[in-house]
Amino acid sequence: MSSGDPHIHRKAKDFRWEGVEVLPYKEDDRALFKAITRQVLFSDPEQQSELRYFEVAPGGFSTLERHEHTHSVLILRGRGHCLVGNEVRPLGTNDLVAVPPMTWHQFRATQGEPLGFLCMVNSMRDKPQLPTDADLAALQSDPKIGAFLRG
Amino acid sequence: MSSGDPHIHRKAKDFRWEGVEVLPYKEDDRALFKAITRQVLFSDPEQQSELRYFEVAPGGFSTLERHEHTHSVLILRGRGHCLVGNEVRPLGTNDLVAVPPMTWHQFRATQGEPLGFLCMVNSMRDKPQLPTDADLAALQSDPKIGAFLRG
């Protein structure tokens, strides 16, 4: 390693990192989401996983989706709620969320403050699936999930 | 996924997590370290990497070591310093540190407060190497590194 390598240390300020671009959440135009950004903190060919930081502004939400790959999440900033499978959970800073394979999930900044979270994923992974109208109806048949999805 | 699965959500309190054991830092008796604990936050056969949380008490330090695998680190709590290769860096909360292959590194809680950090690693990885007396002498020949290693 060369002395003075800028990549060994990236300083943080207000949940932004030196040399890390703030990106749109997704390129997929079909996906429904609101007020969420993405920063890729680690994506190194020597590592088999990536670490990303997503931040949802108050009232915003991530895409409701499922996929074969798993998500390992740590809440880095604020509070909110998540849906994982049939469970709606209140989230606090530093809480952990594990999203199993093929499980519907969504994160929402429900508490009038930003909800920021780290998400570890395998670098090689399948594309997310979006819910069909039938999937949505099935989820909404549970009143707790319906209330969560309406915000 | 079964409804009510306790593993999807683990609440955090004071940098401890529900259902996550606080472990000794290492089993290797040869390694020199001080006042540091380990919690394995995610170690899932579906994920190709693990996410661990290490916490160094004030005045403590991790083992000075190197290995082929890389570390992707995010400071979750407090401040301190690290050595990576020939660089000694001050660390603040949320800063990122990338440890390249075969690069000497150590984390120290130098600021009278705990230094807690997340570390993402490949699940399949090589064993750390400890410095020989010659390695230590070479590192200490740099006054900045010598001062860092003396605490």
Written account of the structure:
- The structure is a homodimer of 151-residue chains.
- Chain A is built from 2 helices and 12 strands; from the N terminus they run ββββββββββββαα.
- In chain A, strand 5 (34-42) and strand 6 (49-61) form a beta hairpin.
- Chain A is globular and about 55 Å long.
- The mean pLDDT of chain A is 93.
- The first copy, chain A, is 11% helix and 42% strand.
- The first copy, chain A, is mostly beta strands and 151 residues long.
- At the A-B interface, strand 1, strand 7, strand 9, strand 10 and strand 12 of A face strand 1, strand 7, strand 9, strand 10 and strand 12 of B.
- Strand 1 (9-10) of chain A pairs antiparallel with strand 10 (96-99) of chain B.
CA-based shape of chain A? globular
- Helix segment count of chain A? 2
Q: DSSP strand (E) fraction of chain A?
A: 35-45%
Biggest β-sheet: strands ordered side by side in the sheet of chain A: 4-5-6-12-7-10
Please describe the structure with a list of short key phrases separated by commas or semicolons.
homodimer, 3-stranded antiparallel beta sheet, mainly beta, 11% helix, globular
Question: In a few lines, what is going on in this structure?
Answer:
Two copies of one chain form a homodimer. Chain A is mostly beta strands and 151 residues long.
Summarize the helices and strands and which ones pair or pack.
2 copies of one chain form a homodimer.
Chain A: E1 9-10, E2 12-13, E3 16-17, E4 23-24, E5 34-42, E6 49-61, E7 71-77, E8 80-84, E9 87-91, E10 96-99, E11 105-108, E12 115-122, H1 133-140, H2 143-150
Antiparallel strand pairs in A: 2-3, 4-5, 5-6, 6-12, 7-10, 7-12, 8-9, 8-11
